[in-house]
Fold each of these.
Amino acid sequence: MNGPVLSDGIFFCDRSLAMVRDTQTSLYIAMVRGTRTSLFAMARVSRTILSLYLRMPQRRFILIIGFIVCFLGSCGIAKAQYGVDSLELLQWKEMAAFYRNLEIKNLPEEQLREQQYQHLKTFLTAYPANNSGAFFIDWSKSITALQADTLSRLVAPAVRNKYSEMLSFTKQRLQLTENGQPFPKLVLRDSSGKEADIASLKGKIVLLDVWSSWCGPCRREIPELKKLYQKYKDSGFVVIGISLDDNKNKWVQAMQHDGQTWPAYCELKPWRDNTMYKRFKITAIPDNFLIGRDGKLYAQQVAMHNLENKIRRLL
């Protein structure tokens, strides 16, 4: 996944949970807002901590305070590494929840595109200086290149300059692989040196699965993908594995271990020298492209739990 990986911490699942969360929220406010608001927030923190102390054994109280301190420490690390403050962490979580909900809804691509675009437009208009804005645009692979450019212009200049490479990559990828447009020319080479042109598969439903032997999340998706392949291959569903490995032995061993029976291709080059990075701007895996029978890109970065529904729409 792109962007900073931010942790909520671990908390006890009892009545104290809501109070701990209330303490965190108050500390957020104290850290990022003005003096007067901070005083009120710190007063709430003091009351909550006193209440926790009176309601539970001392050992548990010390543990919970320790968790809160560790949590604030992670916020400080995020601020130092990514320029993301505590309020932005909350906004990050809210946006992540929005994307998860969109996945659960499993909308047709046109509706998915419009909802992503409108939600991001509203968010970036309200919070142009949010450091996470560039990441949110990068997550939205259903939007068009023109929409991505429009959203990028809503980002504050300082943030846009800071993440200029990411925004440029997103725009370049969408210009090349925009949903609803013909998939670009792509010739792949297998382990024996044999070449295959993706255009020759027109009339089939094609999933280009971009993975690597060293990518744990990629390989955890393989069992489910194998089930879908067996279920729909007689209906014209084709899987093409594209590995970003640079070690042939590890690549081949991983395919054999996972039982991948579909055609597999690999350039055996370092990531930054690979076509999938240089041309298609793939900066994180697992990734994929789902191409319809007409040769047009139907969807990309499809979550495995949504893949079957999208395949059915293309049958």
Note: Strands lie at 187-189, 195-197, 205-211, 237-243, 264-266, 287-291, 297-300.
Amino acid sequence: MRLIKIFILILLWIVVNSPFLASAQEKGPRIRFETEAHDFGKIPEDKIVEHTFKFFNDGDDVLEIKGLDPSCGCTEAFVDKKIIEPGQTGEIKVTLNPIGKRGKILKSVSVETNDSVKPEIILRLDAQVFGVLKDHAQAKDESIFSEKCKSCHVARGEGKSGKELYLADCAFCHGDNGEGKSASALNSQEYLTKHDANYIKDWIANGKDGSGMPGFSKAKGGPLDDKQVESLVAYITKWKKREKALDTSKIAGKYVVLSNLPTTHEKGHWKGKRV
């Protein structure tokens, strides 16, 4: 009976103090988004799309939006107000310009705030882009080597080679370890078995029309010289798993090769001489 009374008292204490516990948890600014991701679905490359992310300040102090950092020059973000009072809301409008891109793309915007629990939140944008411009001048002007986009696709790889160059120029689309992001997986054993070094070199240097992959060689208007292209090929092809050669040392340690064994034929059975 005494234990039941103690249990009831504990429950009453929790009920009475829960509002105060909740308020303690919400002390300071607290940002909350309705959603942190948006999928545009299928879009043509000549259409600039936008989406508005709505957020709330669930805390008891002023929320400050300190900065917005898009992952690419083709993505821009704008906040309607940088200071949000407790209980108030705000909006971040994000635009995506897919010109010159093909296939599945993934972009993001980093939101930096004074929320001590979530000082940074990543908003994600997905889209499936299909080409319509082909040789349209606008598409050429918005290539990834243009002034607007080169900070993501050119500047970071200047003077680098091999792994460093891959991480600077290729990982953005193909993933840090070649696992594939907005572009195909380069560490796929099926891909590496089917395509040799010359094939990979040709794709890097010359690209392919309609694939979203431009030629990165200087001959094609890209930033890479021949040595840099070769270094990427060497780095990527290292992901191919090599078949292990059969280790015959253990076998040879116990038995000699069958053709060299003295044998006798007894009752239809072959017997090898133990070494």
Note: Residues 69 and 102 are 23 Å apart (CA to CA).
